[in-house]
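haha ok so turns out i had the wrong file open the whole time. this is the CORRECT one, sorry everyone. sequence first:
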Amino acid sequence: MGEMRVAVVGAGGRMGKALAQAVSSTPGMRLSGGVERSGSPALGRDLGETAGVGHLGIPITDDPLTVFAATDAVLDFTAPQATLEFAELAAQARIVHVIGTTGWSTGQDEPLKAAARHARIVKSGNMSLGVNLLASLVRRAAAALDSDFDIEVLEMHHRHKVDAPSGTALLLGQAAADGRAISLEEKSVRVRDGITGAREEGTIGFATLRGGSVIGEHSVIFAAEGERIELSHKAEDRSLFAKGAVKAALWAFDKKPGLYSMDHVLGLSD
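then structure:
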């Protein structure tokens, strides 16, 4: 294939800058545009200078339609409502849309299925290659261990994170539910406070910690009488998510329209 043109939405944020840096350092890719919300202080600034990769002559804009029309892929770690709007534009342009956005409400991402009839969408609660491998291991462990093993998902992030549980925690919880062939929505326990009574067998618990500058730490605990298994992942640099997103875009470039996950990218889908 020829050089892949890649745009970044949310280009003025921490993740947007990391995405632009990852694209800039990847052979066969070049930055083609940057998008920010109206009123952002990043508007009009040079995309390359904002990301710390040198002057590119590409001003950050609040006009995604024009940017999408002149690119092959869009990397998106914004917010659910913005992502849905970008998905419609990606479908119109028939391009790759890599979505690392978190904070989705139940059913909120249903419109993505319609957009995926024309766009190649790769969506994941976490773009880290290691986290997606962890999810595969969690799925297998949950299938192999019966309900004598309680499942708890523990996560910690920096003080500025606005959603809880994290998208990654939910990704891991869903992997555990899939392994047990149960509904996460019906079996998840998000809050424990006061006199809760004994733990209900077969549920999947979530515990959320927030503080400092922690990029992301996740553990899935399988606890039975007399033994405990812990599967963990610790993110030490935000660039690992950007590298995963870049890998996803390259993978999706020559695929048919559809809604894909990082399991597809890594060859882990059953």
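The chain has a mean pLDDT of 95.
again sry for the mixup
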